[in-house]
Amino acid sequence: MQPISSSDNEPLSILGGYCPIPLPHQEKIVLGHGSGGKLTHDLIHSIFQTRLGNSVLNSGNDGAVLPSIGKDDEIIVSVDSHVVTPLFFPGGDIGKLAISGTVNDIAVMGAIPKYISAGFIIEEGFQTETLGQIIDSMAATAKEANILVVAGDTKVVEKGKCDGLYITTSGIGVRQNNLLIGGQFVKPGDDIILSGSIGDHGMAVLQARGELGFESKITSDVAPLNGMIQMALNAGKNDQGNAIHAMRDPTRGGVATTLSEIAQQSKTGIVINEKSIPVSEIVQSICEMLGFDPLYVANEGKCLFFVSPQKTETVLEAIRNHDYGKDAQVIGKVVADNPGKVLLKTILGSTHLLEMLSGEMLPRIC
Ligand code: MG
After folding, report:
1. pLDDT for residue 111 is more than 90
2. 228 close to 324: Cβ distance less than 8 angstroms
């Protein structure tokens, strides 16, 4: 462990805003940064509080105190761990992913994401400058999503015991209690809207790993979707609460696996049309080349909506009015036949069953 000398060094400001050069005497993370002692405090102040700080996070107690919610509201909680490799990929990084993934899991429940807590497992020897870049990215994404990071934890493990950095985020959101939104509320007759093209995230991570064997312009779709989802919810309001019965972000396992989960949860059948599913040309050709089906490739900035047909056009228009949903399409319908099953009508006119993804197609994609 190397102590930080304070004699020739100005104390780091906790609340004074951005700290451009983190830990001047400590370019790499050492085990002592996870000790809970002075090095941990210095790391938290210089890297985390300057970037993510707010009055709740900076209060310095063992738990964050959050304001109470209205009596008509429900609390929605989710948690997700992020182990993506590499840490940076076209269109994003593990920090943007860690905030977006948790924001999206809260937002698809029909809730407004409010707070996030984050746990960091850092490998000894990790560059503090790189850590600063990742936390900058988390801060920018949190700002876009209008949420506060209110609690955090850092642990350091010995070199070789983790692959650079893992981040676990837990989110808290608030939902009006009259909203019945979830996979169990999907009904026969519902239209299925997909907010945009599929497969971009998975292929962007493969690109970053150098596994494509060539350069492409592919970028991940990773993004916080709560703004777009709120616009859809506003458009979907009706006498029963909302015409949107369920939403889900098709991450690991892709659109096919997510639809399969919903079909099983709601005991309905799902039929989707291949020709309505947006796939970029580049993703389509890479998938063909490598033998992937884009329906099973992970997305990190897409959402599936299950909407009562009276409101489909209104909700679709609202989604398309948002940048993240401009390519949204109705891709299929929920039916009473074949409960628990997902059928794909292909461009050639045949129909085949889409199973859940079995096994791991692309490990450590998120
Ligand atoms: Mg999800």
Report:
1. yes
2. yes
Compute how many other C-beta atoms are within 10 angstroms of the C-beta atom of residue 15: 10
CB 65 within 8 A of CB 59: yes
Ligand 1 centroid from CA 98, angstroms: 12
Q: What is the pLDDT of residues 188-213, one digit of tens each?
A: 999 999 999 999 999 999 999 998 88
pLDDT tens for each residue of 231-258: 999 999 999 899 999 999 999 999 999 9
213 Cα: distance to centroid of ligand 1 (angstroms): 30
3-state secondary structure of 176: strand
What DSSP character marks residue 127?
Answer: B
| Tokens describing residue 66 | 């959050």
> What is the pLDDT, as a whole number, of residue 60?
85
Residue 95, both tokens: 């920090």
pTM exceeds 0.90 for this model: yes
How many angstroms does the Cα of residue 24 sit away from the middle of ligand 1? 39
What does the domain layout of the chain look like in residue ranges?
A: 12-176, 183-354
Distance between Cα 117 and ligand 1 center (Å): 17
Tokens representing 184 are 């169990």
The CATH number assigned to the domain with range 183-354 reads 3.90.650.10
Terminal CA-to-CA distance of the chain, rounded, Å? 32
Average pLDDT of the segment spanning 177-197: 96
CATH C-level class of 12-176: alpha beta
The residue among 153, 146, 156, 158 whose CA lies nearest residue 168 is 153
Ligand 1 (ion): which residues have CB within 5 A? 105, 249
Q: What are phi and psi of 107, to 5 degrees?
A: -65, -40
pLDDT above 80: residue 15: no
